[in-house]
Amino acid sequence: GFVDIPAGLPMIVACSGAPGDTLEAVNRLARLRDDPRGGQTLERLTAVADNLALRGASALRDGAWDAAGDLMNENHYLLSALDLSTEHIDELRRAAVLAGAWGAKLTGAGLGGSLVALAPPALHEIVARELRIAGATAVFLQGSQGR
Length: 147
Hints:
Blueprint (H helix, E strand, L loop, with lengths): L10 E5 L6 H13 L1 H27 L2 H17 L5 H12 L4 E5 L6 E5 L5 H10 L4 E5 L5
Antiparallel strand pairs: 1-3, 1-4, 2-3
Helix pairs in contact: 1-2, 2-3, 4-5
């Protein structure tokens, strides 16, 4: 369902410049699912992802941006372990976190596309600059004073 999020969500979206590849992402998960051991692993990781999503929704609803950011980091590590991220998205995530974001993760189907980050509004311009330096082709700021 939907989550009612308090006003001022301090979010940044960065485009990697590489289109995502939904078909390949689905195929990778299907290959994992169809392998007997991989299928068990995928089930466990899906349960972890569901738990992260529920906890993240609760943190967002409560305006606990730092806790939500931590959960975004955990979710990104899980998606990366499933081979759904790219080196470039991982670099963008590292740049955002090193610049002061509470957390960041790929968004969309994976294997390219975009990154979403939560960061203190006072650091949005710094995080945006570091994302551009790391190769983001576009950066959008939400819930901050500047653009």
